[in-house]
Amino acid sequence: MTSATVSHVSLSPAHTFSKPNVASIHLLTGLGVEGDAHMGVTVKHRSRVAADPTQPNLRQVHLIHGELHDELASAGFNLQPGEMGENITTRGIDLLSLPQGTRLRIGPEVMIEVTGLRNPCGQLDHHKQGLTAAVLGRDKEGNLMRKAGVMGIVICGGGIRPGDAIHVVLPPLPHRKLERV
């Protein structure tokens, strides 16, 4: 079995589409990535704020599996970690198959609870034409698949850096499939 690890960490204090890679990030319990524009108890994504600024922030941390970058590269999209706005790029873990409420222990301190799937938006096409369609697909039953990563909340804060191990803690049965958040 391949072990899951953090390959890159990224943050941006401004509402930019891409986030530059950094040597490490610090997560704050109940808030998100310290210094990132999406940190907070209430929602920070601009479209969500416009709809209802009092909703809880279920999108404090954005994770993308690095294998998505590989898949997109084979489709002609050369993307670097952080370029699609993720805070944490992983390797060796199928983030999209995790059930809702899965907890990810990252490094010695951090615990993130997976809240749902990132809903790909038109900003992807503004970044690179056709990218939105490239991160959407259909499963065998014809159901829409969102492949642009998962979102989570910080249960226990601390530092994360590339190379940190990721351990999956599944929630009790019955498992609920991830939905968009």
UniProtKB/TrEMBL annotation:
InterPro entries: MoCF_Sase_C, MOSC_domain, Pyrv_Knase-like_insert_dom_sf
One Pfam family matching this protein: MOSC
Stored Gene3D superfamilies: PK beta-barrel domain-like
TM stretches of this protein: none
Cited PANTHER family: METAL-SULFUR CLUSTER BIOSYNTHESIS PROTEINS YUAD-RELATED (PTHR36930), MOSC DOMAIN-CONTAINING PROTEIN (PTHR36930:SF1)
Protein's UniProt name: MOSC domain-containing protein
Domain MOSC: 20-169
